[in-house]
Amino acid sequence: MKKINLLNLVVVIVGVAIIFLGLNVGLGGIRTLGWQTTRDFVAITDAAIFHTQDSHIRFIGGIWFGVGATFLIGGFALRTFRPTLIILSAMIAIAGLFRLSGMDSGAIFSAAIAPSISLELIGFPLLAWWLVVSKNVRGNLNT
């Protein structure tokens, strides 16, 4: 398998995973659809505020879905989408840094969060680097 073909596959898989996460939150709101955890982790004490915040979370889930769709499409049109994917990878890494603002190292480095923050702070910068250096690979229509 050529390097660029593996990169295309990785970008498509990343897109599908992000779409999955976006749908879970975008369609399920704060409670999610329960695809990653149970739905009963939230107790509503003020319904009006909950529904407002739930709407905001659904919007963010929709953005995340759009990011995933961009990665998915980018896996098939790497030449066109490479700069966009590099920027999105950098944005995801920066967003991962925002997790540290929670100041709860027990949660941040827990088994529930560690895989996500590792992908955000290590995986996506590596993906961005791979996208940058892959531009120099010749002999494939997707370069």
In short:
By secondary structure, the chain is mainly α.
Order of helices and strands: HHHHH
Low-pLDDT sequence parts: 139-143
Biggest sheet features: none
Q: If you compute it from the alpha carbons, what radius of gyration comes out, rounded to the nearest whole angstrom?
A: 17 Å
Query: Overall mean pLDDT score?
Result: 90
Put simply, the count of helices is 5
Strand content: under 5%
Number of strands: 0
Overall shape: globular
Keyword list:
143 residues, disordered C terminus, 5 helices, globular, mainly alpha
Architecture overview:
This protein has 143 residues and is mainly α. Helices cover 71% and strands 0% of the residues. α1 packs antiparallel against α2 and α1 packs across α5. The longest helix is centred in the middle third of the chain and has 30 residues. It starts with a helix and ends in a 9-residue tail after the last helix.
Helix and strand arrangement:
Blueprint lengths: L2 H26 L18 H30 L1 H21 L6 H4 L5 H21 L9
